[in-house]
Write a structure and sequence with these properties.
The protein is an alpha/beta fold. It contains ten helices and 14 strands. Strands 9-8-7-10-13-14 form a six-stranded mixed β-sheet, with helices on both faces. A two-stranded antiparallel sheet has the order 1-2. Strands 3-4 form a two-stranded antiparallel sheet.
């Protein structure tokens, strides 16, 4: 294969043609990317991922005489990506069977892999916050001065400029520093964002043979990694919702599975708002990834009321009340629909109008990019 490189146009030489030499990829790195993809699909089940590697090897010759599956497994252990845990069973007289499990290092690698897949390579520089154009108390100096006002933090007084003002106003022979001489350095307020990502884990997320939960997991892992790298002062909480809703830890994302659940959107919204009420910063938002209309609520008695047929008036009413409540709390809700069910689209339309939030109808492949674009746009607010 030959490539054409422009090394600066020269009327005598023109373009230089050179042979393209592909970068040599390490055996481990080549298999590791495939392995990370398989782990995401198998919800962190290493044995199942190894089985898939065996199957792929039989068809596509992933391994060779130089580098086998056993070599790869050994490298994973040496590099600290997996470790063996012993499960002691009753009656085995202290002998246990070892099982490979993911380490925190591999969980972090999966988040990084998801980010690179969905959002592309991020530069390691550029760690920052959400600077706004609103002036206020902050820790980012603006380079501009203004007259001192009652209540200003004295640590922000520009003493050099203030003394210079005193000399001009009073003369060197009678140097006096008064309040009228004082100036302070202006700063820009840095807005922090608190985000709750709601992930639907109802049975429909794998219904009809279509895997919708894996892209949702990738988005969650990538969003966490993006925030950790670029916006370290922001917070993100992940909750899942089926018949009920509960929070999950970041480290648990690779293991996320769907269940035999209906879709209790109300429970998810209640939990999301409870989490955001405890956040001190002003900027808050909810992202909701779902592929189905709400079909379940929990009654005061504790029983679940379920209805999968059409749009149930009582369930929809409860959802709309939560949307209005979030609007009063100034919490916008962005809904990402990963299905084209007409009932879902109708529900999201009225739900979004009630919250004055946003909604996107997206295919599985475009889900991540759309969420990231929305996060980048939403993170800055004037307050």
């Amino acid at each position: 294969m030959y490539t054409m490189k422009n090394r600066g146009f020269d009327s005598r030489k023109g373009f230089i043609i050179s042979k393209h030499v592909a970068e040599e990829i390490d055996h481990f790195d080549r298999v590791f990317d495939i392995f990370k993809e398989l782990l995401t699909h198998t919800s962190g089940d290493i044995d199942e991922a190894f089985d898939w590697l065996n199957s792929l090897d039989a068809e596509y010759k992933i391994f060779s005489d130089e580098y086998s599956l056993e070599d790869f497994e050994e490298d994973l252990k040496k590099r600290g990506y997996i470790k063996e845990e012993i499960d002691f069973e009753e009656g085995n007289k202290g002998k246990g069977k070892g099982k490979n499990v993911l380490t925190a290092k591999l969980e972090s690698a999966l988040r990084e892999y998801a980010l690179d897949q969905i959002f592309g390579k991020l530069k390691k520089s550029g760690l920052g916050n959400h600077a706004t154009t609103k002036m206020g108390i902050g820790d980012e100096r603006d380079g501009e001065n203004r007259a001192f006002q009652f209540g200003d933090d004295l640590t922000r007084v520009d003493m050099t400029q203030s003394l210079k003002n005193a000399q001009i106003n009073n003369g060197i022979s009678d140097l006096r520093l008064t309040e009228n001489d004082l100036v302070v350095e202006e700063t820009k307020h840095k807005a922090q964002m608190s985000t709750v990502l709601m992930i639907d884990i109802s049975h429909s997320m794998i219904l009809y043979g279509e895997d919708r939960i894996t892209p949702a997991k990738k988005v969650a892992m990538a969003l966490v990694e993006l925030i950790k790298r670029k916006y370290p002062k922001d917070s993100i909480d992940i909750i899942v919702f089926g018949n009920e809703a509960w929070p999950i830890k970041i480290k648990d994302l690779p293991y996320l599975k769907v269940g035999p659940y209906h879709t209790n959107t109300v429970a998810g919204l209640e939990l999301a708002m409870d989490i955001l009420r405890r956040k001190r910063n002003t900027n808050k938002q909810i992202f909701m990834i779902t592929d189905g209309k709400p079909s379940c609520i929990q009654l005061p008695s504790g029983e679940f009321y379920k209805n999968s047929n059409g749009l149930d008036e009582m369930i929809v009413s409860k959802c709309l009340n939560k949307a209005a409540q979030a609007r009063k709390l100034k919490i916008p809700i962005t809904t990402f629909m990963i299905a084209q069910d007409p009932y879902l689209r109708k529900f999201v339309e009225i739900f979004t109008a009630q919250n004055r939030g946003k909604a996107f109808l997206t295919g599985l492949s475009g889900l991540g990019q759309m969420i990231f674009e929305d996060y980048e746009k939403n993170r800055i607010k004037k307050i």
